[in-house]
Amino acid sequence: MIWCVEDDASIRDIEVYALQSAGMEARGFEDGDSFLSALKNELPDLVILDVMLPGKDGIELLQNMKTTKKYADIPVIMATAKGAEFDKVQGLDLGADDYLVKPFGMMEMISRVKAVMRRCNPKGESRVVSAGEIMLNLDERTVTVSGKRISLTYKEFELLALFMKNLGRVFSRDTLYNEIWGSDFVGETRTVDVHIRTLRQKLGDHGDMIETVRNVGYRMEVKNDK
């Protein structure tokens, strides 16, 4: 999922449309407040961030991301005005991965997005994770069980991905809650139990791979008899 933070509605709509036409998921935000609010519940794969925004500008938003552990690794491409060299240098110094100079073409934008995504996965690490009969594709955000695709909510997918990338590791409810929902989310750890229950149901015969560790939390292990 690519997020475009741009206050000009016409530019924002074109960016989102171009990315979707290139086969990527994309979503637009008109200001920093709506962008930061969405970050609390979902993490994008990359952000195209305009420097000139109402309220919190792009530089301030970039600083916020790079100093927050949960968001620090999200790739960011800054969009700067033509001739605004200071903004470009400042953005790169603060951790931006690339920049686009306005006005830019949509083909250039898509090319830079793909290049940054490749650089952020330099070792060619597999984006498909498996555990027994369960296959999870991190790029396509799809899950198949015994070759049959199942539908998961965003949080269920994030939970399953965390377990599958850490087979055998025990996670406390508090850890799962903070990892998936964020420490600033208003709720309770009971939410974890509800999502684990529905996730197990959707995994069918393989749901028992997610084990309850008494008085601690949960872990996922591959069952040899599956």
For the structure shown, list the relevant keywords.
226 residues, alpha/beta, Rossmann fold, Arc Repressor Mutant, subunit A, 2 domains, five-stranded parallel β-sheet, four-stranded antiparallel β-sheet, elongated
Structure at a glance:
By secondary structure, the chain is an alpha/beta fold. It is built from eight helices and twelve strands.
What does this structure look like?
- The protein folds into two domains: 2-119, 3-Layer(aba) Sandwich (Rossmann fold); 128-220, Winged helix-like DNA-binding domain superfamily/Winged helix DNA-binding domain (Arc Repressor Mutant, subunit A), CATH 1.10.10.10.
- It is an alpha/beta fold.
- Helix 6 (154-164) crosses helix 8 (190-203).
- Helices cover 38% and strands 22% of the residues.
- Strands 2-1-3-4-5 form a five-stranded parallel β-sheet, sandwiched between helices. A four-stranded antiparallel β-sheet has the order 6-7-8-9, with helices on one face.
- Strand 1 (2-5), helix 1 (9-21) and strand 2 (26-29) form a beta-alpha-beta unit.
- The relative contact order is 0.10.
Spell out the blueprint of helices and strands.
Layout: E1 2-5, H1 9-21, E2 26-29, H2 32-39, E3 46-50, H3 58-66, E4 76-81, H4 85-93, E5 98-102, H5 106-119, E6 128-131, E7 134-137, E8 142-145, E9 148-150, H6 154-164, E10 171-172, H7 173-180, H8 190-203, E11 210-213, E12 217-220
Parallel strand pairs: 1-2, 1-3, 3-4, 4-5
Antiparallel strand pairs: 6-7, 7-8, 8-9, 10-12, 11-12
Helix pairs in contact: 1-5, 6-8
- Class by alpha and beta content: alpha/beta
What's the CATH C level of the largest domain? Alpha Beta
Number of helices: 8
How many strand units? 12
Helix content: 25-40%
Q: Beta fraction of the residues?
A: 15-25%
Mean pLDDT: 86
CATH superfamily of the largest domain: Response regulator
Order of helices and strands: EHEHEHEHEHEEEEHEHHEE
**Major sheet: size, sense and barrel closure?**
5 strands, parallel
Strand order of the largest sheet: 2-1-3-4-5
Indicate how many domains the architecture comprises: 2
What best-fitting shape do the alpha-carbon axes yield? elongated
> Alpha-carbon distance between the termini?
33 Å
CATH topology of the largest domain: Rossmann fold
Segments where pLDDT lies below 50 for 5+ residues? none
CATH architecture of the largest domain: 3-Layer(aba) Sandwich
Cα Rg: 20 Å
